[in-house]
Every structure is written in C-alpha cells, then in structure tokens.
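Dear Dr. H.,

I hope your travels went smoothly. While you were away I took the liberty of generating a structure for the chain from your last submission, since the lab meeting agenda had it listed for discussion. I wanted you to have the full record in hand beforehand rather than looking at slides cold. The sequence, exactly as received, is reproduced here:
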Amino acid sequence: MRWFKSLAAFSAGLLVAGLLAAPVQAEVRIAVAAAFSGQFAPLGDQILAGARLAVEDINASGGLRGEKLVLEEADDRCDPERATALANQLTGKGVQLVIGHLCSSATLAAAPVYAEAGRIQITVASALPQLTEARPGPGFFRLGPREDATAPFIAERLAREFAGKRIGLVTDRSAYGKDFAARVKAAMQAKGLSPALEREFDAGARDLTPLASTLKGERLDVVVLGAYATDAGHLAAALTALDMQVPVLAGDAAMGMEFGAAAGEAVSRVEVTFMVDPAAVPDSPAREIASRMRAAGMVPSPYATDGYATVQLFAAAADASGSFDFAPVAAALQSGSFDTVSGTVSFLPDGDREGAGLSWYRWQDGRFRPSDLPR
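The corresponding predicted structure, in token form, is as follows:
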C-alpha cells in the first residue's frame, strides 16, 4: 500500500501529529554524510540542499510525530577511513537516519558501522553493486541505480540506433575506464554487437588531438566514451576541431560542471547517462522543489531531489510504523510503497529501489539537462 498520496496530505498528517504531541518537542537527529570538500563537494552539497529543504518543510508542518528533525552534515571527503570514523561519531550522537555516503568506497566502509548500531542508511549516489549484493543489514537502502545498469542502457540504445554501424569504444586508463569498457563490451555482445575500434588514453592528457585524429580515420558512426568530465569535454572539442561530426555517448563520470568549459562549442555532441531527473517528468512534484531551490540560489538536480525524497521516506516509514525504533522503521521501508518527490518508491528484497532508471543528458544553458524522458 502507499502510506501517503501526496506531499500536501502527508504534511497535513504531520501537523495533526504535532498538535497531539507533548508541548515540548524532542529531537530526531538525522545526517547527510557525503563529500563537502574536494572535487566531489558540489554533489554532496546538492544532496544536503534537498535534505535540508525537506527537514524545513516537515518542521514547519509540526515536526515528525510531534518531534523536531535536526539535520547534521558530515564531510567524509570520499575517504573510506574518514567515513568509518564519522559513522562511529554519528551513531554515538544518536543519529537515526544517515543519508549517505556519496562515494561507493566511503559507503562500503561506513555501512557495517550503521548496521551494527541499528541505524537506517539510505544512499542516493553510491552505485557499487556489492553494496546490495552483500547487503550489510536490513536498514540499508539505495535510491539511485546500480552502476551495472549503465552498460545495458547504453547497449540498448546502440542496438536500436547503431546496429550494423561502426562503433568506437574509448576509455581512459583509470579503474573506472577499464571497468566501463568491460561492462559495455559485455552488454554489446549480449545485443549481438561488437566495437569496431577500442582505444585507451591517459586521464588528464593535455592534448587529445592525436586520439581524435585516429577516431576520425576509422570512419566511426558513434563513439562510446568512459571518461571523466574534463577529458570528455576535451575530446569533444578535439573531434569538433577536426570536423568529425559523430555523436558521443558517455557514462555518468562525464556528468560534471567542468565539462562545459572543456568542451566549449562542442558541448552539444555529447550525451551522458545519469539517474532519472524527476523534475523532467510532467506534473512531478519535483518541479516545485526544483523551482524553490532555484529561487533560493541552490542548484536543483536529481541528487537534490533524492536528498529531499530520502527524508520523506524516513518520515513516512516512522509515521506508518508508529515508531522511531530501527526494526519497525526498516520493516516499513522494506515493505511499503511511498509517493515522494522522486516518484513512487518501493524497495526490492536486497534494498535496491525497484525500477531505478536512467536517462540521457545533454549540456544546455550552462548545465546538463535531460535530453529524453525516463525510459
């Protein structure tokens, strides 16, 4: 069943709960644990912005079951050792929900701490399959898609639009690039496809013109790219400089603000896979959240929307179970179906979101925007 039908109805329920509660509010502590410094800080900031807005809305409606939500932020810098230390600190403070972590390595390190302490952990961004394949406990959940969903998503498009065409597979030599190449090749083979050309390059290379020249000489119809945002932008610019008019389909590592500056006028030739943006769906409540974020000078994004939705999920599960205790809240999350700003959310037995989807994005007006509706 669905525990609430709309955000407005849920807020009204919270108000009633607040009126029936004791006059002095207690506190329910929750936290966002992510990178708030270093290269991934913009992503952590987006998740935090969404969670903060949700906490403000719930508290303005009387709190959760009459109790005030208090939000903390914990900067793990995407470092596993620091993430473990912060997990111990947060559980010691009595934090009942952790939204995090951001990077898979940090989530993997911290998850056993939360599981042992009996804390709900919901990650928005960590895509490592191992996190749910070897689920640390019944309180661990993931909202975003797994990283092994990207390759089949790309291969499906290749089969639909480029069957019988010359496909180039280009990746950097990082661990991400090598894993991306292996997964994409396997997914292509499952569709009866194979790359006409495979090339690797050094991440951060200053000049990608020689690589672009090689690609042009191979008369490719499409390039599949596994590289980070700056390199993806530089390659797009190098291809354009050689007048190679070929589409580039990139993995989610290319989804960074630095892409625009690196690509210059070549931004439109690259499409990037990333988690579905609920605000791109007509009539989605995420549109209102995105509008409010822009008005407040914040950056709306799928991460921000999911940050908001994660607080909603915890609140709805606590409301449905009539408790803040770990076991009933975890059971409610596992068995329930919830309408959130990120759409209807329910979880598979392993803790993954059922039907977590991907979309294609293209750079437009200074940021990546969906170039399709969710598939």
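Two observations you may find useful: The chain has two domains: 27-142+282-356, 149-276+359-370. DSSP finds 13 helices and 14 strands in the chain.

With kind regards,
E. W.
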